[in-house]
Specification:
Chains A, B: It is an enzyme of class 2 (transferase). The structure is a homodimer. The first copy, chain A, is α/β, with parallel strands linked by helices. Chain A has helices spanning about 35-40, 45-55, 95-105, 115-125, 185-190, 190-205, 210-215, 220-230, 235-260, 275-285, 290-295, 305-315; strands at about 5-10, 15-20, 25-35, 65-70, 75, 80-85, 110-115, 135-140, 145-150, 150-155, 260-265, 295-300. Chain A starts with a strand and ends in a 5-residue tail after the last helix. The model of chain A has no long low-confidence stretch (mean pLDDT about 95).
């Protein structure tokens, strides 16, 4: 039997697992709840137990695996195999994740942060078509990202490479949680879209259901904004246009700087699909020079939730 | 005798040569004029002749060399070893540079564009301190750049990676020769600095020697602007502040995206030295989040004109 890899995508709610071939074909998958009680001290033991349990179930041994790859929230030290500052896991102190998992499973572990492994997944088996130069942007509660350049995942000097959500798209823009102003995240995350809607609504006087909802004090979501825009609500269309302007500016500068084969947009906000993509592309073309327009494509993510577990698995290939 | 490398930095005026150790220590250097007549058809034969002549002079043979590395203007196809569109050399058609030089010298050749090899040089032996993640920006007639990330020079999908001069720093800014608006080059190249000076002078009413010179129709240079600013000319200080705002914004977003250990600023405009660097750094800090401020440094280039020939030489190490 050819050796397999295991991918783990750890999140604040669940940990997803997959047993895959080295070619990235998922053969088994399962998930467990993330028990964040007691400073998250149950999380890694639960992962170890779940792996050992499933290996028993499938009649597999540690020697059947090339390794385990794992994506996690927080700041990851890939060399040391440790994680710190994963607040949705209640991990505030340094966690020796690799040591615990390797000791508990007798399989080698490689680890990286969740946005990076999602980028690896989309690049390997998704919209990135395994190209050596791919940028991934995830538009969710926040805006995250990962960059693969010349075939390598970038980490930078202090692990901050790929922090696309903190590209400054408006020097005089909204205050961001990171401490500075005008970050992409403040205008294109799920909460950012709503923020832009509230701002534009204040000055908007025409007919609009979105305006009505906001004036009535209703709670709205970024999904509402995109749905209303697709139903031709004038204010919602203005909001989407502004959000796509900022996304196109950020993508344009990623294109001018890195000239990736594709910039792949994923995460909850990207559920708006082609309606979003085509508008980002319009501004991307405005903010890039001709050779980049021709060679860098704006694409939608294809793997959805599986990007993380597949990309995590790919980390284990370094042990092959 | 340990084998050596040869670096060639080809420009529109001269071609510079250096014989170096594999550690980057220059042992011999010389230069020849670039003869751009007859569609630049003499350039490569002149280079071949000059190399063979100097090897004879120093009593060296092709076998004494690991290889030749070369930086050139224009669009370079590294795989094919060809160059096209180097207008200052009058190379408008495809030039089989590698084939000609390898045949003429019996030494292997690697080739890349001039901004990229200067980046390699500053990263290897200059301000980059041989760190795996270094960005180089050159502020000259235009604005060029090169990016080394995870130890590799980035080219991107169509060779446009590192085109830092075309980062959009003002979506409603000046028209650029590349076809779009608000490129960094339009406001921070030597001509860009003068352009900013002319614009700000129109609205400026106070006392200023720079204002006087412009109103009198004098030709001014970016050097004049920086000298007047250092002599406390109020308008010149405003111009420098605006130029550094844009440079700080572009460097900030390179920091947020790539988190290099350093962003190295070179080229003619960087002759303004610490006066320029400290102001770029001020805005860089405004446009980056704390971890990037701490781990990415803004530095001045250290190698001057030698960056190109040293970086070009380093390309030859791939044959070692």
């Amino acid at each position: 039997m050819d050796k397999k890899i295991i991918g783990i995508d750890l999140g604040g709610t669940t940990a997803k697992f997959a047993i895959m071939t080295p070619e990235g074909e998922i053969q088994q998958k399962w998930s467990i709840d993330s028990n964040v009680l007691d400073d998250g001290s149950h999380i890694v033991p639960d992962i170890v137990e779940s792996i050992n349990h499933h290996l028993g179930l499938y009649g597999m041994k540690p020697e059947d695996f090339i390794g385990i790859g794992m994506g996690t929230p927080g700041s990851v030290d890939q060399e040391a195999g440790t994680v710190i500052g994963a607040y949705n896991l209640n991990w505030t102190t340094l966690q020796p994740v690799r040591e615990q998992i390797e000791t508990g499973t007798n399989i080698k572990l490689a680890i990286d942060n969740d946005a990076n492994v999602a980028a690896l997944g989309e690049r390997w088996k998704g919209a990135g078509e395994n190209n050596p130069d791919v940028v991934f942007i995830t538009l969710g509660t926040g805006v995250g990202g990962g960059i693969v350049a010349a075939g390598q995942l970038l980490h930078g000097a202090a692990g901050c490479a790929g922090e696309i959500g903190h590209i400054t798209v408006d020097p005089h823009g909204y205050q961001c949680t990171c401490g500075k102003r005008g970050c992409l995240e403040t205008v294109s995350s799920a909460t950012g879209v709503v923020r832009v809607a509230r701002t534009l609504a204040e000055e908007y006087a025409g007919d609009s259901q979105l305006k009505q909802l906001l004036d009535d004090g209703e709670e709205i979501t970024s999904k509402d904004v995109f749905e209303l825009a697709q139903a031709d609500d004038a204010l919602a269309l203005m909001v989407v246009d502004k959000v796509c302007f900022y996304l196109g500016l950020a993508c344009g500068n990623l294109g001018n700087t890195l000239n990736p084969a594709s910039i792949v947009i994923g995460g909850g906000v990207s559920a708006a699909g082609e309606f979003l993509r085509s508008r980002v592309e319009k501004y991307f073309n405005e903010f890039t020079f001709p050779q980049v327009q021709e060679s860098t494509k704006i694409k939608l993510a294809e793997l959805g939730n599986e990007a993380g577990v597949i990309g995590a698995g790919s980390l284990a290939l370094q042990f092959a």
